[in-house]
Design brief:
With about 450 residues, the protein is of the alpha+beta class. It has 9 helices and 27 strands.
Amino acid sequence: MHFKYTAVAASLTLALSLTGCGSDSDTNSTAGTGNTIKVIDGYLSQAEICIDQNKNSVCDAGELLPTLTNAKGEITIPADKAGYPIIARAIAGKTSDSDKPGTLGNSYELIAAAGSKVVTPFTTLASVQGKTLAQVASELNLPAEMISGDYVAMKASDNKAKEVHLLARSVTSELAPTVKDNQAAELTATTQKIQKEIDDQVNAGAKLDDITIEIDDSGKASSVTIIQSLDAYLKDGDSQFISMNQAYAIDEGIFKVSVSGEKQLTLTDKNSKVETINYTTEGNTLVVSSGANSERDTFIYIAENISLAVTEDSDLILWTKGDLQKSQPLAASYFEGKTWYYLSDDAPSQSKEAQPMVAKMVFGKDKVTITEPYSTKPTESMDLPWKMDGDKLFINFPEGDSDFSVTLYLEDKNMMAVYNYSESRMGVYDLFIKHEDMAKNLYNKWKK
């Protein structure tokens, strides 16, 4: 069976055309002489490394190394650079964390002093707060040797390291995109709040490797179960998926998916036709087969409400454990004063060949400025009126262009999936993405 649902993103219909973009380097290495370090939240692979030669806690021009961290988070710092602080850049849509499948949903930076063997959230806390690691350990009531070392490896022999690891992966969600953007007092308070929730989880007998601690918009800390692999994601209840290409979406609609046996998926289409297919997972890749046909879909981002997979034909599929047929409340507060990156497919309505596009939308009180950041052909920005019409976001385009109308169906802390009610794009789901790195990397991987 050839899975025709392989197509991606629904168009903005802005009369903005988008083509071309460069690709990311996948180079990584630990070769050469020097100081081999590890970048750890879990082990961070495909992270960028900067040598902070002017010691200003900023990755300046000329400081970025040409190689990326390997699967163990390792990279070798050249001997002549060993006397400087190290900045590690974890990049949304590119960097992977051994704690979870897919790539990161948000970007952040870690920093460590010269000579450190590890770059972690704890070395970052020490730098931002202007303290030693020993002082940070004392304040957190954690062993100094753990927060200054490879706490992931230490879990094999000491359960206390599980607390350390949980704190590390929870703090990274609260880090700013750059080291300089972190506020010491705010980060300290956030870390203490997370630490208190971890203490409560320890007392409750929670399995610390199965959770992370998140802080919601009201400032409340709570535990959230983490997805540990693509296979675990598939087996954790029923899923739904749909192509984000208009032609495929209208033709095929929403598929409902369940794991029905050992390495078998049961798919139900919009006409209630049921088919059982075989599957395996290879890291972040879902391999499905039916008869002589097979397909490999690579998941870039995996979360409970929104997951994204790119097919062998470079098409994007929206997966969810939620409900693609139930809208959610949407208000002006989602947009006013905020910047979103709108990812969609600019293919003609009858075309099943994806044409990815990204529009940067900067929302003011009643106007939105729209540009195409990755177009090979420079386009002028458009300043257009916007408003909420009930639960729908409405953008009024000039005469001759279709107006834009969407409403919310799925969301997590990094993005929203919206249903398009625009006249020319009815029936498709698009993405509003918070972080530019994620939008750019999704776009690049989609185009490949």
